[in-house]
Amino acid sequence: MELxxxxxxCERGGTTLLCALLSEHPEVFCLNDSFLFDIYVRQKGxxxxxxxSSFWKNAFLDLSRPLPSKDYLVSLDEVEEYFSNxxxxxxxxxxxxxxxxxxKVYSDTLKSSNFLNEARSSNLTLTKMxxxxxxxxxxxxxxxxxxxxxxTPRHLYLSKWISTLYPKAKFIVLVRNPLTNVAALYKRRKSxxxxxxxxxxxxxxxxxxxxxxxxxxxxRYEDLVSKPQDTLLHVYEYLGANSxxxxxxxxxxxxxxxxxxxxxxxRDVKLKEMLNExxxxxxxxxxxxxxxxxxxxxxS
Length: 300
Description:
Order of helices and strands: EHEHHEHEEHHEHEHEHHEHHHHHH
Number of strands: 9
Number of helices: 16
Oligomer: single chain
Helix content: 40-55%
CATH topology: Rossmann fold
CATH architecture: 3-Layer(aba) Sandwich
CATH class: Alpha Beta
Shape: globular
Strand content: 5-15%
């Protein structure tokens, strides 16, 4: 099964909401947080530079050893190691709750799949391995659709490599206001500095071309929330999907308890209320590039 598009954006930036909305379309499905490429890159031993936070390490991946091409033949040992690493990631307990996360639905699916038997009976290229795993992760009721996508925030760091694996794939880049995106990260990470660092790692100069919108589709989270009909129609047109049907309610196959079943316009208001004036000033200072490009009115 071919991957047709990727949703890219910062953690806590609204990418799961976009996935849920897109997946309500009769022709489109977007898989959430598969970690397909992130896990493989880690398996290949790619490291970041020493002396910076783990999030900045991801943004400054060591490019001295090129990653394999799409036609690279993956050895059986490598396939089995990758399969094991995926299961380990999907079954990793939530540290806050000390219990399995919703990702376990992926490990349960893979354990009952035929993937390893198929790998042992045929030679797999790298792209075929990823596509095969992806096809098993798609819920049965979604498999008759025509346009398939994936989103994992960390995959933005690997977008240049992913584009060589799937040269025909399209990229949708979601931007969220630094104040609300950092506040959402801050709520989880409890460190404002770490939250700003994490946010900025997705806007590092290495990825600036993603936000120029020349070949990719760049949309703002705020437009998705305030003008969902127009924004989704724009996305469907970009993907080549039938643009007549637009739903702003959803019943996504995972995380219903996290994102609900409809758009919540009050979420940003509550997030901004978390920040005091000094914190807002710091965020505006450090995230000036994003404000200048996408939210100039916030600086006035």
